Every structure is written in C-alpha cells, then in structure tokens.
C-alpha cells in the first residue's frame, strides 16, 4: 500500500504526530486506527527485539531487519531512528540507502559519539559539529528520493547547554537537514525559543519519563513545532499491562481475572492475518480432495 508522504504533510503545514511502535503486536493493533505516521525508536526497538539497553549495542543489520519488518507490517509511514548512522561517513551512506530501501519516509541521525546512549539518560557525548554537518550532507546525497527526509538530532543540550544546542541546530539546517531535532530540552521556554530561532521544521520528542515536558500535539504546534514523536507510549503501556497481568496471575493463579482485561483472541487472529491462512487451507484442501 502507498504510505503517506511526510514531505507533503510538512509542506502543507499540518502538524505531524507519530506514536512509537515498539513491536509488531503494537503495529497490528495500531493499524485499526488508520494512523498516517508512526515512529521506530532505537530505544524501544532494541528493548523489544533484544532485551538490551539503548547504548549502541544493537548493530545496523539488527536494526535494519527490525525496521524493514515494521515497514511491512504497519500501514503507517515509518519515521526511523538510525542512531549515529552506525559509524563514519561511509556507514551513514550505507545506512540511508538501507533504511530507504526498507521503506521509511524519514531517517533520524544524531551527533553523539559512538557508542550512543538514550537521549534522556546521562553520559552522552557529542562529536564536533563539523563531523555531524558532513554526516548530514552525506545522508542527503545518499538518498534516492527527496521524499525520504533526513532528520538531524543534536544531543548537545547536556554538554554544551541550550545555546550550544541551538547553534548546532542552525548549522544542521544549513547543511541540508529537512527537520531539526534538539533532544532533551528542559522547559517549554527552551522549546519555544528553539522554534523561534531555527526556521527549519522542528521535531519534538515526547519521551514519557524523560527530561522534556510532555505536551499535547496542539500545544506543540502552538509553540512552533512541525512534528512530534511519542516513542515510549506503546512500550511503556505494554510493560505496565504485563506487570499488571503477572501480579494478577501470581495472586489468583489464573489469566482470567477482573484486574486484567485481555485483548479478544478472535479479534487478534483477524488482525494478525489468520483468515487469509484459513482461506488458503480451505482452498487447497478442496483441490486435493477433488484430485
């Protein structure tokens, strides 16, 4: 199916809100809501696929495999976290080509040193701004279609302060980034000022439990953002549901308790595609019996 164009959505001035999809169960459930965009988070992809922290441990190949699967399963157009581009300039070129072929509509690259760390955890270090500028230029040149957008993220707020982060954002926009992303801003005042000073489309990260205030899409649009990601939502919701279910199971010794509603099994069979399997089996069972 044809996915929604992020480039066209931003050009139209329509605010883009993309919830994170941490695994394929979240993706098939989200398909029932006809979302135009969704986000593939490095943190939650690594956690759900490998049970590991977002600390540069997962490889490019592992992440590409997960992103490719998500693009196939989800009806939404996928905005994908590509960490640092998984290395130097040649790696960035290879990453952009691979993610674009996977089917994403935007590729997010950050200016952290390798191995990177989650943007809302400590001990992040950034590369020199000129190194990231070169990565952005390589990323823009590597893409086959200008429908594939490059999102440039800076993690400099922690080490270089707000002014340092804004300075990098301006440089990244000048280098050709389609969208600029200042990670871990710490107040609505900083968010508003960043949007005032950087004229490129700005993306906000609404990471539940992180350092940035969580605002609604309407509030973010009013501040001046063009788009926002909500990367933690389905992952944290799923973790809470599992914790609640396990607590009820330990207490009652059964999965069937009023304390934990379960998704309807028959409905999930429909979402995951079993009707097509059953129809295939009915067809071929008839053909075999006729022969």
CATH topology of the largest domain: TIM Barrel
Specify the oligomeric state.
single chain
Radius of gyration: 21 Å
State the helix count.
12
CATH architecture of the largest domain: Alpha-Beta Barrel
Explain what the structure shows.
It is a single chain. The protein is of the alpha/beta class and 291 residues long. It folds into 2 domains: 6-238, Phosphoenolpyruvate-binding domains (TIM Barrel, Alpha-Beta Barrel); 261-291. 49% of the residues lie in helices and 12% in strands. It contains 12 helices and 8 strands. An 8-stranded parallel beta sheet has the order 1-8-7-6-5-4-3-2. Strand 4, helix 6 (129-142) and strand 5 (149-154) form a beta-alpha-beta unit. Helix 4 runs parallel beside helix 5 (89-102) and helix 5 crosses helix 6. This is 2-Methylisocitrate lyase, PEP mutase family. It comes from Salipiger marinus. Keywords: Lyase.
